[in-house]
What does this fold into?
Amino acid sequence: MFGRTLNTFTYRNAPLFKNFDKFVVSNALSSKTSIIAPTQHVNASNATSSYSTQTNKPFTITEKRIDELRTPHQPTSPHLTIYKFPLPAVMSIMHRATGICLGLGVAGLAGVTLFAPHDAIYYIEMLQTQYPALVYPAKFAVALPLTYHFCTGVRHIFWDETVKGITVPQVETSGKILLAVVAVLSTALTFISFK
It folds into this structure.
């Protein structure tokens, strides 16, 4: 179709090359004017488009600075104070956060072992004798990220290997079950003594 239109334009309307810009503007503003009938001239200020009820105004160019074009104080999307994260998203974020906490904890334990005057066992025993009220919170602070990261990691491995249980209702159900298992395991590990 483009070849036919171009052929029609070049052979039948050769005199229009002199006023090509006026021809294009008049054809764009009027649905009645066609390329085949170049004898119809349309005044650009009086022409109306077929999809608008307003009269077309002459085109003008205005210059603006770049800071005038920016809209100030517009929130980015997704805006964290508006949207509520679903349970699978929160659990995924917490899986990564507990992994970071465990990595930092192991690095800190290794740093204490390497650079402190005493080994880590000395400081753990000192915590038990001088601050006995902090023993259970400290054990829970270690047990919770460990059990959570382990359980969610096992679930991710199960998803990767079997490609089962990855629909939204199944993920939410398994997430609730996993949270209950993590609560029981971390509480049990907090109160169990390994002496």
User: Anything to note?
Assistant: The domain at 87-191 is CATH 1.20.1300.10 (3 helical TM bundles of succinate and fumarate reductases).
